[in-house]
């Protein structure tokens, strides 16, 4: 069984970051800590961080979709990479840095 903690943070840039869609001074990110009851010595840390008005998965209910997906993973015994491949969030898969258990 997986245990997932989601920690949202607002990052403040030291310098404004210019893109084709405007300039960013902050960025919201969600850090994900994944562990397993079967292997508590193994953990994975990842982040999800779509850029507003730029990332394809910048949707108003992003945080809820992410939380729902994590709750589903905790309840079921999925193979992690298969589960992540089913998510509609491109910032979670394949571009994440989550270490699979």
Verbal overview:
This protein has 101 residues and is α+β, with helices and mostly antiparallel strands. A hairpin with a 6-residue loop joins strand 2 and strand 3 (43-48). The longest helix is centred in the C-terminal third of the chain and has 14 residues, at 62-75. The protein has a three-stranded antiparallel sheet with strand order 1-2-3. It contains two helices and three strands, in the order E-E-E-H-H.
Describe the secondary-structure layout.
Layout: E1 2-19, E2 22-36, E3 43-48, H1 62-75, H2 80-85
Antiparallel strand pairs: 1-2, 2-3
The end-to-end span amounts to 11 Å
Helix content: 10-25%
Q: Main sheet: which strands, in order across? A: 1-2-3
Order of helices and strands: EEEHH
Nearest-integer average pLDDT: 78
Are there runs of 5+ residues with pLDDT below 50, and where? 93-101
Instruction: Report the total helices.
Output: 2
Number of strands: 3
Q: What form results from the Cα inertia axes? A: elongated
Structural class, from helix and strand content? alpha+beta
Q: What Rg is obtained from the alpha carbons, in whole angstroms?
A: 15 Å
Largest sheet: 3 strands, antiparallel
């Amino acid at each position: 069984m997986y245990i997932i903690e989601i920690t949202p943070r607002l990052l403040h840039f030291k310098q404004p970051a210019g893109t084709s869609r405007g300039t960013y001074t902050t960025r919201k990110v969600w850090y994900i800590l994944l562990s397993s009851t079967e292997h508590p010595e193994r953990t994975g840390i990842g982040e999800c961080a779509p850029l507003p008005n730029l990332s394809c998965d910048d949707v108003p209910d992003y945080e809820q979709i992410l939380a729902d997906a994590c709750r589903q993973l905790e309840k079921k015994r999925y193979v992690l990479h298969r589960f992540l491949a089913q998510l509609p969030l491109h910032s979670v898969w394949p571009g994440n840095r989550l270490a699979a258990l």
